[in-house]
């Protein structure tokens, strides 16, 4: 059962949505305000979040930003009674996968959720993944894709998320050449739009930090075009 975090302060709507989602085989955790939603997100693991925009204690936009800071891989959509274009743009810029205006049909919400989850879990074809138990040397690092682990000097260094591991593998597979942004988005995100590009930038910044201990490994941005992932074996790693 896919796990959903539902943050909705309207007790009637929240109770109805929780029951309907559970009837459709979702596991639902319901938060009655934004602060409770953040606490529950930190304590649990979710496949998708449904966030009402107007909530007490913490609005949906603020909650979404904090969720993205904690785990940018979790998809989310907004529920709102407001129809202004500015609100919709603000939500999408935060990385929302969808934006549903109240009132709406519960069946429509179910379809949107299923489409988002399906898209999220089909982002990388099995033919592009390394063989099981493959260890890859990247400068002073060892990349273990199967166990989602990056080791530094043979010691565990970072536990990776699945998307981080897929991105590292794609960059490594295309090392020492210019990789276009749209190619990275197509292979790792399965879509190429403004919001996916923003998500990719967050992941690239994080991965740069992971490899900062070895100056031989570099991710260089080529403005307006893409990236170069290089391993310069002529440089000596830090001691």
Automatic annotation (TrEMBL):
Q: Does the record bear DNA-binding in its keywords?
A: yes
Task: Fetch the InterPro entries from UniProt.
Answer: CheY-like_superfamily, OmpR/PhoB-type_DNA-bd, Sig_transdc_resp-reg_C-effctor, Sig_transdc_resp-reg_receiver, WalR-like, WH-like_DNA-bd_sf
Residues annotated as DNA-binding are 133-231
For this chain's UniProt record, which GO biological process terms are given? regulation of DNA-templated transcription
What keywords would UniProt list here?
DNA-binding, Phosphoprotein, Two-component regulatory system
- Indicate the segments forming the OmpR/PhoB-type domain, all copies: 133-231
Q: Which residues form the Response regulatory domain?
A: 3-117
**CDD domains membership:** REC_OmpR, trans_reg_C
Single annotated GO MF: transcription cis-regulatory region binding
**What's a Pfam family in this record?**
Response_reg
- This protein's source sits in the domain of life called Bacteria
Q: Does the keyword Ribonucleoprotein apply?
A: no
Q: What is this protein called?
A: DNA-binding response regulator, OmpR family, contains REC and winged-helix (WHTH) domain
Q: Organism source for this protein?
A: Ulvibacter litoralis
